[in-house]
Design goal:
With 388 residues, the chain is an alpha+beta fold. It starts with 6 loop residues before the first helix and ends in a 6-residue tail after the last helix.
């Protein structure tokens, strides 16, 4: 079995790295949040340049603004972008596969090119106050009214809802049906009357997380992805794409390299590279990183072969989000009290990346399905075990 990339793929990797070096703001590349007021315009300018190169939709058909590139090229692109903190729109890579598989011709023509050029910036309306891990328990309703549906309810943990101009949202349209049925999936303009966005403060401080309220919000029938009352089956396509794993393993690799640099450095908390305990821990994590990368590549291979990677996506998501947390937790332990210092002259390497990454990666084991949910999917769909 050959685990090496082709010469063409490696040449493309170098091209992507050169583009990042030339176009991405040094502050964002160093790990500063691209969606703060200070950096947001730089982040969007970078994303529009990606759109001009047709790299946002690198794997999408050319007629929709993509390049029709292979799954391998897509993984190379995303791995490099995420490793270097480039501000991609993750929802584009979750929603568009669902549109490709289930959307009408109108939806494909209307939304895929606009996402490819970054005219459209997406957020996702899945989780609710009483429906997070149990997404099928959602209560936000959409009631048919002529050529429209009227949405009422609340969504929670909606990342970048205050920035996004579109949302893809799962609603309940048949309250009498079993909870995995009777749901309908829409795309919705965030400027529609009746939508209110409120910040949800988090440990990481920067404004990323929100709750969104829908008060008699009208959405056209033509904005349904798939069929009415069949939204759960469309949403599984979105979730499989979200859990593909390359994002997590690329972020974990960056965290590992930053911690390795810190223990080698003369900065506060550093100069521990020759401590045998540190060396053994780092060696163990390096092996785990290679495992995580192979799991992510396996998902890409399955997608390329047209095989649905439902259980495999869950394996990859579970392993790599928990690995990322293990890496940052190890960094916090090895670097001592200095690892708690946020950005500033006294922070490790000056960036404060270690504590920030640690805080941010605790919720990553919850978002897109908790680790417990992933284990249930692996047990049921992967191993065929009965429900407990």
């Amino acid at each position: 079995m050959n685990f090496l990339f082709s010469g063409e793929d490696e040449a493309f990797r170098k091209e992507v790295r050169a583009f990042i070096d030339a176009e991405l703001s040094p502050a964002i590349m160093a790990g500063e949040d691209p969606y703060t007021d200070e950096h947001f315009e730089d982040a969007m300018a970078f994303r529009r340049k990606l759109g001009e190169k047709k790299w946002i939709g690198i794997g999408w058909p050319e007629e929709y603004g993509g390049l029709g590139a292979s799954i391998t090229a897509q993984m190379v692109f995303r791995e490099e972008m995420i490793y270097h903190h480039a501000p991609l729109d993750p929802q584009a890579y979750q929603l568009i596969p669902a549109l490709m598989a289930h959307g009408s011709d109108y939806l494909k023509k209307r939304f895929i090119p606009g996402t490819a050029t970054q005219e459209m910036f997406w957020c996702v309306g899945f989780s609710e106050p009483d429906a997070g891990s149990d997404l099928a328990g959602l209560r936000t309703t959409a009631t048919r009214d002529g050529d429209s549906f009227i949405i009422n309810g609340q969504k929670l943990w909606t990342t970048n809802a205050h920035r996004a101009n579109w949302i893809h949202i799962l609603t309940r349209t048949d309250t009498q049906a079993p909870k995995h049925r009777g749901m309908t999936y829409f795309v919705l303009d965030m400027n529609t009357p009746g939508i209110t966005v409120e910040e949800v403060p988090t440990m990481v401080e920067n404004h990323r997380t929100n709750q969104v309220f829908f008060d008699n919000v009208r959405v056209p029938v033509e904005n349904i992805i798939g069929e009415e009352n069949q939204g759960w089956y469309v949403a599984t396509t979105t979730l499989d794409s979200e859990r593909s794993g390359i994002r997590e393993v690329a972020g974990a690799s960056r965290a590992f390299d930053e911690i390795a640099a810190a223990v080698h450095s003369a900065s506060p908390g550093g100069t521990r590279a020759w401590d045998p305990i540190v060396r053994h821990k780092m060696a163990d994590l390096a092996v785990q990183l290679q495992v995580g990368r192979m799991l992510a590549y396996r998902v890409g291979w399955m997608q390329q072969e047209g095989k649905p990677p439902t259980a495999e996506s869950s394996v990859t998501k579970l392993f790599n989000t928990e690995l990322h947390l293990r890496i940052t937790r190890t960094g916090m332990e090895m670097l001592g009290l200095y690892a708690q210092v946020m950005p500033g002259s006294r922070a490790v390497l000056g960036s404060g990346a270690v504590p920030h990454d640690y805080l941010r990666n605790i919720p990553n084991t919850i978002a897109a399905g908790t680790s417990e949910v992933q284990r249930n999917i692996i047990a049921g769909r992967g191993l065929g075990l009965p429900r407990g």
